[in-house]
């Protein structure tokens, strides 16, 4: 009995810790060049892979001077494009840097690579709100939703064009998330993360120049570890916001509890993100995507042993954990 109670206490502590995490966007810095033939051949395949992960990643294309200084996007901001490529010691294109840590050729960014990054969480969430027009204000909230991580961090804010329709020397006609200019220092601005449950609020201003398409211009924001270069999380104004309301416990119902063969779940609305099944010790024993589930779904659990379990829902709209009991089942 004592062991059981200890397990329950540990489980509740773990659930609280797990719940205090935000969705982590996969951050892809794509070092390419608009006159590079290899880039022109490889980038379409890379973008095809990304098309299956909308809402799960952020992408920023950097255009350095290699292999061709005639690249039109490099010419628009020579210094900062080269600085960003040099930051990662990238010397060939097209190269993709994943979350500031892993470098791969664009052709090597496969579905399995993306899948390995899905479902990861972060102790911070970055919420970006941006005004329209040519004179813009960008309000950024960096929320600490888990235990504040140790380390030294910088925040970056970069202007980009979401879609640029322009035929370039390598034959590419459409260019995505084209980096234009930093509105922080190009080396980032220092940021001290808030304690759990609190936020750091920042504001930036910039002008949309005549060289950019106003309707496609936006700001990408990310927080990066100074020492490891790991990107803790990122955000922009296109992210799915909580405009429909953060989910609460009342938005998720387990229809029959205790459960025998199927864990039947009812949501008040379809959600993105993932569900997790945890045992009494807080170990994840099953994980699945919510993307195609709709608002009502069943999870087969007949094979589970009798006992207490937890269902955890993690979405861009929030995180909720529900307790459920598994009964013995002998069909």
Q: Please name the CATH topology of the largest domain.
A: Immunoglobulin-like
Strand residue percentage: 35-45%
Helix amount? 10-25%
User: At the fourth CATH level, what is the homologous superfamily of the largest domain?
Assistant: Immunoglobulins
**Quaternary class:** single chain
Query: In total, how many beta strands?
Result: 21
CATH structural architecture of the largest domain: Sandwich
Mean pLDDT: 90
The CATH C-level class name of the largest domain: Mainly Beta
Structural class: alpha+beta
Count of discrete alpha- or pi-helical segments spanning 4 or more residues: 5
Total domain units = 2
- Shape descriptor reads elongated
Sketch the major β-sheet. 5 strands, antiparallel
Using only CA atoms, what is the Rg?
A: 22 Å
**N/C terminus separation:** 30 Å
Order of helices and strands: HEEHEHHEEHEEEEEEEEEEEEEEEE
Describe the structure.
16% of the residues lie in helices and 40% in strands. With 331 residues, it is an alpha+beta fold. A hairpin with a 4-residue loop joins strand 7 and strand 8.
Features:
331 residues, alpha+beta, Immunoglobulin-like, four-stranded mixed beta sheet, 5 helices, disordered N terminus
What's the topology here?
Elements: H1 2-19, E1 22-23, E2 26-31, H2 37-50, E3 57-62, H3 72-76, H4 78-87, E4 95-98, E5 102-105, H5 111-117, E6 121-122, E7 124-130, E8 135-144, E9 153-165, E10 174-182, E11 189-191, E12 199-207, E13 217-225, E14 231-235, E15 252-254, E16 262-267, E17 274-278, E18 284-289, E19 296-300, E20 307-315, E21 318-326
């Amino acid at each position: 009995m004592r062991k059981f109670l200890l397990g329950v206490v540990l489980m509740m502590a773990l659930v609280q810790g797990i719940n205090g995490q935000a969705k982590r966007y996969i951050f892809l810095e794509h070092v390419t060049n608009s006159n590079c033939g290899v880039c022109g051949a490889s980038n379409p395949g890379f973008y095809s892979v990304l098309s299956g992960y909308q809402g799960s990643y952020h992408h920023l294309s950097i255009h350095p001077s290699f292999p061709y200084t005639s690249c039109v996007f490099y010419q628009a901001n020579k210094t900062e494009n080269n600085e960003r490529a040099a930051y990662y010691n990238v010397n060939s294109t097209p190269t993709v840097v994943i979350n500031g840590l892993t470098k791969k050729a664009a052709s090597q960014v496969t579905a399995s690579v993306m899948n390995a990054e899905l479902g990861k969480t972060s102790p911070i969430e970055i919420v970006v709100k941006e005004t329209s027009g040519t004179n813009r204000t960008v309000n950024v909230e960096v929320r600490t939703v888990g235990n504040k991580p140790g380390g030294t961090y910088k925040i970056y804010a970069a202007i980009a064009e979401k879609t640029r329709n322009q035929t370039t020397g390598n034959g590419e006609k459409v260019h995505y998330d084209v980096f234009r200019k930093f509105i922080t220092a190009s080396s980032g601005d220092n940021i001290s993360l808030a304690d759990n449950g609190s936020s750091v609020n920042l504001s930036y201003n910039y002008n949309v120049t005549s060289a950019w398409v106003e309707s496609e211009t936006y700001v990408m924001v990310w927080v990066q570890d100074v020492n490891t270069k790991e990107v803790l999380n990122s955000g922009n104004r296109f992210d799915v916001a909580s405009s429909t309301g953060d989910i609460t416990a009342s938005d998720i119902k387990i229809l029959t509890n205790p459960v025998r063969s199927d864990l039947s779940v009812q949501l008040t609305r379809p959600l993105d993100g993932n569900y997790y099944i945890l045992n009494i010790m807080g170990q994840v024993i099953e994980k699945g995507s919510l993307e195609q589930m709709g608002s009502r779904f069943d999870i087969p659990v007949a094979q589970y042993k009798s006992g207490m379990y937890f269902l955890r829902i993690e979405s861009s709209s929030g995180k909720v954990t529900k307790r459920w009991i598994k009964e013995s089942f002998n069909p």
